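Quick one: structure tokens for this chain, please?
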Amino acid sequence: MVLSRVDLPQHCAPRNEVENIRSLLESPPDVQLDALKRIIKEQKRERLLVVIDGLDAPGLSGKVQRGKEHRHRFFEQIKDFVNDLENYKAKVKALLTGEPVVDASSRTQHWICINYDEERTECLSSLLFDNSRYENISSGHEGSFEWIWTHAEFSDWLMASKSRLIYVQGKPGSGKSTLTKYVSESLLERENIAETAIVAKYFYSDREGESQRSHYHMLRSLLHDLLLQDENFFYSGFQKEYRNHLRPDSGMKRKYESLKRVLKSFKIYQASKPVYLIIDAVDESDQDDRRDILDLLLDLHEGPSERSTIKTFIASRPVGQLDSTSHNFIRLQDWTRGDICACAISFLDRLRLPDPTFYRSKALTFIVDRAQGVFLWVHLVGKDLLRNFDDGQSTQNVLEYLEELPQELDDYYKLMLQKICKNERNIADSRMLLQFVLFAKRPLTVDELLHALGARNTPDTGQLPLDAEFHLRVPTSKRILVCGGDFLEVKSNDERDICQVMHQTVRDYFFRPNSQAKQFILEKIDQDAHISIAMICIRYLTVVVANMNETKGLPPFSEWTDTQFAVCAQRLQQWPLASYALHHLAGK
């Protein structure tokens, strides 16, 4: 061996070749480095690869990393060693690996430097999408859905050693999203799989805008979660797709098809952990390509058992493509009677009935029987009963009112709309709010809606109001709750208060062709609510421009500098609807 013939300093004085090698390995780094150079010089091979791994290894800390000076000296020696390789007869290539423990100045300019995982990190950033629906789902009543863990179909899906899909079907308002969120959170906590499994989730939502019902964004979210929790997946074919099709300059359709191929490839990828895909509200997803997406998800569970174990949980209203006996199935409303009972008790207790045992039992039985598994109906009934109680109604009147309430959601919404129409002072604001919430191109904040009301309530006198006068016409946030008639709700999202319809069934109700509800929001607007929204936006921007012109001390626009633009931007922040109005009128 070449190593055994290396001359050692006298203090090493080996007795044989084994001792020679042992002594060399125990020598100071300078001696070892010098020996390595001599070994390479004696090599007769034309090509030689030198690999130095673990430059950041803990073992270096005792010998080399005793301070910045020692560490710097060590890397300078490595640098000189690598540079000297060019002088040898053999074609030598060197690979150095380790965490960044030295700054760039310690490297020579012609070194090729690769930051480990940089490309995967860039890919993760490109996949990141804010699936806002998840955060807006209310938690269920305490103790709700505990039955799911002992349900035979769910247990079979959860405990299966092979890939399986479970389909939770539920009627509108039956608590599908609440259950899905509960399962998503509890899988990590209750089943203790945080360290032993990969969980990826997506919650479709029609009422929260086009982006939230997009299959493209669903694929992005799922793949982001998968790649974040299993970095090796990137190097199984994902990397090639990312380089070829998922760069920022790639077209949307090209990216979409690439994402589908990547997800499909997961079933032949050997994942180190079981994978759980949690998908809610498929019925609210884009109808375009929905069939292909469902085929893709179903196909993930058909493959060799030695590959990844993929458990998919899908919750949705009835979707024909999912009606199959080949996977586990739960009809949600058949199993929630106990949960609905607990929900009803929570608000009946607040009524403080004179004889709780009798009256609460009577009301509870009536509510649970009439609910037919629809939590949303129970929620609406509870709000109505509490309002009647707060108005001072007698117990008998409250119970009689309960028995008169419609059983079907559509009939309940019709009753809610009739209440709005009875208040002539509020009806115009109610119509405008519903138009903006239902037809806006993105969810609007409370401040944006209040300024829209301010613009609508500005009289068309030919003289535009100044800043202070306009803001006097902007109502408070309570106006939304009063005029929304329980159709609207306010949710906090990224420190902003967003106004939306309180459930997807509200959108369904107002969008039914030739319905009284649709006629209400489209009255006198030539069957196009967007015209009404555009008119409000134009009026609002006119007021904004008029007030900008009143800004004192600004030179003509052609002479503006960065300072004037900054002043203008600061002024525009006082007009929250301006950004949406400009985008809406621009058709973006």
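The chain is about 50% helix and 10% strand.
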